[in-house]
Amino acid sequence: MKTTIKRRQGFTLVELLVVIIIIAALAAIAGPQLMKNLKKGDLITATSNAKQIGLALFEFDSQYGGYPDNTTAQTVKDNTGSQLTSSGSSANDMFRQLFAAGICEQEEIFYAKISYTKKPDNVKNTSANCLAAGENGFGYLMNGQTGFSSSGDPARPIAITPLNNATTDGSCDPDPFDKRAVVLRADQSAISYNIRPTDKQVVVPGGKTLLQTGQDTVWGTDVQPQIMPPQKKN
Fold this sequence. Notes:
- There is one protein chain.
- The chain is an alpha+beta fold.
- It has one domain (about 15-230).
- Helix content is about 30%, strand content about 10%.
- It is built from 3 helices and 7 strands.
- Strands 4-3-2-1-7 form a 5-stranded antiparallel beta sheet. It has a two-stranded antiparallel sheet with strand order 5-6.
């Protein structure tokens, strides 16, 4: 008598549901950690870029006696003949002087992965495309309308990311870098600080906020720190 062996054809509906449930559970466990690792990578990139900006600003300071402002914009133009517009009210305008002066060659060092930025295209032959809106993710700090310099308090902030919706009140978006902000200091170091959840302010050593002035702060009593915001992508 010949025995016929029936072979299974695929999975049953119950088995498929079990597999789907297991995959969903694993994704729920691994997802947050994966996202945290991605944000950590973005933080590392922003920190590295901030240091490169610091080196460029230091070289600019050596040549022009201070960091970029609207006064140095004219001096750079006179010295180099550059037709790039490098005066204005945004961080992009101020950082564009580093290109006009021949110090910076690559736009990538100004990139930080934020909702209002985009990958730089490294096209920089005109004012319209050199550090165009969205290609810079760093806010730039000045004393009113005057640029700082490498002299003075070495812990003084010079640039910061990720500003909350590119605002100028010092508040930062806690989402891009897992509740951390990157601050470039006058000593060319780039430090990540906690973003306070209640008001999204950056807390620096001593429990002070980024723009807080007065005694026992990096600004002292005679400085009025002001943030020049990055231009958001169109």
